[in-house]
Each structure stands twice: as structure tokens, then as C-alpha cells.
Protein: histidine kinase
Organism: Paraherbaspirillum soli
Amino acid sequence: MIPSIRMSLLKWLIVPLLMVNLVGAGLTYWLAWIPAQIAFDQSLADAGWALIPRLRESGGQVEIALSQQAEQVLRVDHFDAIYLVVRNGQGRLLAGDADFPALPEKEALNDPSTYDDLMRGEPIRVMALKTRIGNESISIGVAETLRKRTHIRSVILLALVALETVLTMVLIAIIWIAVSKGLLPLKKMQGDLDSRSHDDLSPLDEQNAPRELSPLLKAINALLDKLQIDAKAQQNFLANVAHQLRTPLAGFRTQLEWLLQKHAQEAETAHSIALMASSTERMIRQTNQLLTLARAEPSKFEKERLAVVDLNKLVEESIQHFVEEADKKNIDLGFNLNPTRVMGDQFLLRDLIDNLIDNAIRYSPRDGRVTVHTIQGKDGGIFSVEDTGPGIASSEQELIFNRFYRLDDNVAGNGLGLAIVRDITKDHGARITVEPATGGGTIFSVYFPFPILGAPAKLPL
């Protein structure tokens, strides 16, 4: 199970606070119940003290002047049954209930004590008091059943449970919100990292981060810095290798073309040379794509290279090459080129145009159709390529821009074309969309922002 900081914080905050809350609830219960118990016991003691003035000594014996009405007043209670007893030192009943439980022997006089007992099959609370009338000790007992006490205790307990439940829920909610608020910087950092593209190795913001996250951010930024250095080294190596390969490969192609012309009459030799020429052409294309990929890397692109470019003229200059490629598969290649100006790097834009049109021709079936558009839209320039190929599933529309990802291994290519298109699009502050074409196929559209007024213009070379 993956450990969770949130759950760990909640556990270490909620559990101890709940324990403290339970202890506090217990103390509150006793603080509420004990005074109530004392009040009830004091009421019993008052009834016992009320009997003492009615005792008097007569003829050497103690008698009690307790009328029936006075006894009824002492026994009045709307909840509990009241019992009382008065006995002399020999245990003779002077007044009250004959079946009253035996009172404890006490040495101290006029010192009431309370305890629990049982009478007539029901629990009772007893107050015992010993006093002296003349030369004789008298024992007084007053008791009541526990109905009222049980009811009050239940009310206190239920009220306390309800209060503690509400307090506990409020406490948990406050802790949950506090923990969530405390983890927001981590969530924000996660969101920042998730929203980045795979090639964005810029450092994270440390100035506005909480102090506790500073060591983590410094460690991440140090790692990003190392990765950025490694990525630049790889890009430089890639660019250098591609650049060094271009010249000998171009010379090799020239030599093969010369050999093909010289041995055109020898069928087997000409066929072999043609195969080598085809392989060399593929190697040159792949080398050029690697070089373009290194140049188009967003982290290395210089915005100063952007200038106003006529996009439609860039396409016009490459029409002949595209027509020749389309004729090999009898593809109907159409161009709808309206005057369109964009801010761009003409070399990289040529590669973007070449890769999108070449990709459409490669994936369109024989006798298919490819249409190229340049449009000056209301928000900027638009370049789009529509084909009648197999289409692209929505689940793969993001994956096709990854390097070396290919939809069909049977189609020639190295999986770099759309990755190059994506990087060039980012370099120009543009966006690219992939939509299904009517009747089948795919439409790739690149939306460029308006050219900056006053920017230098560059005519395509």
C-alpha cells in the first residue's frame, strides 16, 4: 500500500485529539453528575434533619411527634418512592417503615452518610444519620428509589453524547480542511509538473513556495538542471552527427546517380544501384530530420529568428517535389493557397510543411486524395493538410506526436515527422489540431498568431 502524507497527518492529528476529547467528555460527565448526586443526597439529609426536632425525651424514653400529615409531606415525590425509619439505640422502631434495611453502626453523631442499598426489590439511595436525644442514641434513615437519578443521569449522558458527536464532527472537518489547505502547495507543485510537456526542464518557482518545501524544490531543480545539461548535450551531439553525415551522404548519392547513368544498360547492376540510391535517400531524409529535430528543440529555439514569412510562397516552392511523390501512388494532390503571412523561421516552416504533406501522402491509399490549404484567418494564418488515409483514433491523437511513435509499421518512415511538427509549432507560439475528415481521413491544421507589426520581413529563399 502506497503511504499517504494526508492520511498520516490525519491519523496523528485526529486520533490524539479524539482521545483528549473522550477524556474531556468523561470529566465533563462526572463534573455534571457529581453535583447532581450531591444535591439529591443533600435533599435526603435535609429530610433526616427535619425529623430531629420532632424527637423528645419523655419519662426516660424517646418519642417522636410525627403526625400522619407531616409524614406524608416527607414522603411526597413525583418520581421516586420515599422511605424513612427512626430507631432507638435498642433497634426499636419509633417511626417509619419496619422493613427499612438495617442502618450501619456509627460512632460520629450528627454526621450524615449516604450509600446504595436495596429495598423491596429495588435499588435505593440511603442517608443514615445518628443523633442523641437525652441519654439515648437515635438512628435515622431516609431513602429514595433511583428513578429520578437514573433519568437525570441519562439526560446528562445523552446530551453529552450529542454534544461530543457534534464537536467530534466539527473537529474532524476542521482538521481535514486544515490538512487539505496545508497540502495545497504540494498539490500545486504536482499540478505544475503534470501540466509541463515532457521537454520542459525549466526550474520550479522557489520564491513563492513555503519554507518547508524549499529543500524539496531545490533538490528537484538541481535534478532538472542536470537533466537539462544532459538534454542539451544529447541535442548538440545529435545535431553534430547529423550535420557531419549530410555532406558524405550527399556525395554518395551523387556517385550513385553517376553509376546508375553509366550502367543503365546492365539490368542487374542498375537495379542494385537503384536500391542503394533508395536506401541512401532514406538515410539522407532521416539525417535531415534528426538535424531539424535538434534545431527545433523548444528549449534551444531563439525567438529572434522569427520574422514575417509568406507561408503560401513557401508551399509553392515545394509543389514540384510533392507532386512527384504523389504521382508514385496516383494520389490527387491539390493546393488551395491563399496569401498568408505568419511570424516564423522559414527554414523550420519548410520542414513543418514538408513533414505534414509527406505524412499525408505516405498514409493515403493509392488513388487517394490530399489537399493543402493556406488561409489568412481572423486570428492569424492557418496551414492545413487533409488526406483520405485510414484516420487516427482519438486515443492516439496525442501519442502520434511522440518521437518514434508510428501508426502503421508497414508504412515507410522513422516516427520523427510529427514530433518535429510539434516542436516547430511550439517554437512559433502556434497550436496544432487533429480532426477527422468528412468521408474518412484526417485533417492536420496549424494555427499561427498574427504577425507582429513592425517585424522584419523575410522572403523565402
Q: What stands out?
A: The domain at 303-447 is CATH 3.30.565.10 (Heat Shock Protein 90).
